[in-house]
């Protein structure tokens, strides 16, 4: 099984998990980045207040997303890009929570994906003082990116996973999760055999 996955990163307008205002996606096949995508997202009503704290972190303002598609309009593009891949994200609980929260807030069924947290993998792979994304990415040989830009963060996350897989001799996300070890999680409906 090859090292195939989609790295994902969200930025949010506020503390609501449904307030995604930007997404970055990086498709990896056989340990090599083959495609990237990113776009702004207009958060759904009730989750669309842009807090100063969040804006200071990512630099996205309410006026930047006025003409952006909402979660409902862009959701199919996100799912199509991932194409059934396992997701990887740094502090994956946050990013998977955004998917769950935005789907719940807009009445869309949550997609079914396995996921792996690059933060957990980094903690089991590198001896660092901090495992924040820029520090862990530097340990993987990826540095100088614009932290809190969703696409740049997804690219950094992908670099960590590819480098860690090489260090652990893992050829797939499943093998890396076992070798690190790190928890392989799941969001969405779990298929049940009849």
Task: Write the topology of this structure.
Layout: E1 5-12, E2 20-29, E3 32-40, H1 52-58, H2 71-82, E4 87-89, H3 92-106, E5 113-117, H4 118-125, H5 133-139, H6 150-168, H7 173-179, E6 184-187
How many structurally independent domains?
A: 1
How does the major sheet shape up? 6 strands, mixed
- Straight-line N-to-C gap: 26 Å
The average pLDDT is 95
- Count helical runs: 7
The helix-strand sequence is EEEHHEHEHHHHE
Quick one: overall form?
Answer: globular
DSSP strand content: 15-25%
Q: Helix- and strand-based class?
A: alpha/beta
Let me know the number of strands: 6
Across the major sheet, the strand order is 3-2-1-4-5-6
Q: What is the name of the CATH class?
A: Alpha Beta
Rg, rounded, reads 16 Å
Helix content class: 25-40%
Return residue spans where pLDDT drops below 50 for at least 5 consecutive residues.
Answer: none
The CATH topology is Nucleotidyltransferase, domain 5
The CATH architecture designation is 2-Layer Sandwich
What is the CATH homology-level superfamily?
Answer: Ribonuclease H-like superfamily/Ribonuclease H
């Amino acid at each position: 099984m090859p090292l195939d996955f989609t790295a994902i990163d969200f930025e949010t307008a506020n503390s609501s998990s449904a307030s995604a205002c930007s997404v970055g996606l990086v498709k990896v096949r056989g340990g090599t980045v083959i495609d990237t995508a990113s776009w702004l997202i207009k958060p759904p009503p009730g989750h669309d207040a842009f807090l100063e704290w969040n804006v200071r972190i990512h630099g996205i303002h309410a006026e930047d997303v006025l003409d952006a598609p909402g979660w409902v309009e862009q959701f199919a593009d996100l799912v199509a890009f991932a194409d059934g891949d396992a997701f990887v994200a740094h502090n994956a609980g946050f990013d998977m929570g955004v998917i769950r929260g935005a789907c719940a807030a807009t009445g869309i069924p949550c997609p079914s994906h396995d996921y792996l947290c690059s933060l957990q993998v980094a903690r089991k792979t590198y001896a660092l003082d901090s495992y924040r994304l820029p520090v862990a990415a530097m340990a993987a040989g990826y540095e100088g990116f614009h932290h809190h830009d969703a696409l740049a963060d997804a690219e950094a996350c992908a670099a960590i996973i590819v480098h860690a897989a090489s260090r652990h001799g893992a050829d797939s996300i499943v093998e890396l999760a076992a070798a690190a070890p790190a928890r392989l999680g799941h969001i969405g409906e779990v298929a049940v055999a009849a």
